[in-house]
Amino acid sequence: MAENLEKAVSIQGYRGCFHEQAANIFWGKDTEMICCDNFREVVSIAGNKKKSTGGVMAIENSIAGSILPNYNLLKKSNLKIIGEVFLSIKQNLMVLPGTKLEDIKEVRSHPMALLQCADYLDKHNWKLVESEDTALSAQKISQNKLKTAAAIASEIAAEIYDMEIIAPEINTMKRNYTRFLMLQRADMVKEIEDANKASIYFYTDHSKGSLAKVLTKIAESGSNLSKLQSFPIPGSNWEYSFHADLEFENIEDFHHALSAITPISKNLKVYGIYKKGKTY
């Protein structure tokens, strides 16, 4: 149970993970982190008023693409999107203070982080050990005083676990960004002043040009379609549902878009109206 529900959010991963970094940016560094093993737990706790005030969930990465299961979790939840953060993912090689590069015999991290740093790791004859979380790797090395092991994790993980970054930003692709959604229960959401982005869900039938008609109406409303993600509807005859992100200069343009597409779409749902996120 969180001690301060007004400043407690659920995140996927352990203290020092990138979810925590995104949460600190949006909610503030005094926010209490409720660490979860998986995204389903993140959504469950974020939706429970007795456990948290909201949650943070990664939704897409500039290299790996969309995290499709998380769209489904959002759809089934009572949560709304109240903001977003685009975080530059910088992987760092860290060790116990005093450990030198030549002392390292193994490197521990999440499989994706190891893959992201493959070019750097290939230059060394180290044993690579996969773990369930980048920050957890740093935590275990710190707790167990493993002087010949290194972890790949974030700067904040190094700070939390008193690790020394011996090689910063070793990820191969320097332009690697993850988009994190800031989520809150529908009954807590307040109107956001100067909102200029929204996320919606809808589906169309299989008739010719049905999706094109929806997209045309969105364009005519003055809103810009910045993302469109499709999902097959289980049990249907080749029908698809869609998640769309719309950007606009004023809220009237968005409401105009909603009015225009309501008659030609089904199950229209607004996931959230918020401010377009910045990149950090």
Automatic annotation (TrEMBL):
Keywords attached to this entry: Amino-acid biosynthesis, Aromatic amino acid biosynthesis, Lyase, Phenylalanine biosynthesis
GO cellular component labels: cytoplasm
Source species, domain of life: Bacteria
GO BP annotation list: L-phenylalanine biosynthetic process
Domain Prephenate dehydratase: 8-185
SUPFAM superfamilies xrefs: ACT-like, Periplasmic binding protein-like II
Name the UniProt record assigns to this protein: prephenate dehydratase
